[in-house]
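Entry for the shared binder. Reason: the reviewer on the internal report wants the predicted structure included alongside the sequence.
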Amino acid sequence: MSSEMIVTLPGGKRVDTKIGRHVIRTDQPAGGGGEDSAPAPFDLFLASIGTCAGIYVAGFCHKRELPTEGISIAQRNHFDEAGTLVRVELDVVVPPGFPEKYLEALVRVADQCKVKKAIQAKPVFEVKAVVAR
């Protein structure tokens, strides 16, 4: 099974990706030569980790008819001196009164995030140049 996304370069430091009917726009910060008109691609990558965990937490709550109001995920990204991502911490923050019996289950379900699993699987990347027809 495979899927395809089309990445275009609309100008400047902007890069867009078409995924189905959606377009995700990115740009570099002004300090990196961009216009800061959209998140940087690496920031979207990092955000995909926390938002993926959030989808799993929301699904868990909806399945049990637990309210999601007041639930958030605090994500801390840690880098080494070279700027390489070395650790990601996710805290599922629940409001006072959230049933304590579900806390460990929330951690387990957030840990099932497909983005995290894809990173841990260390996929093979193949990059090549192809002349358009």
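Summary line for the report: Residues 41-63 form the longest helix (23 residues).
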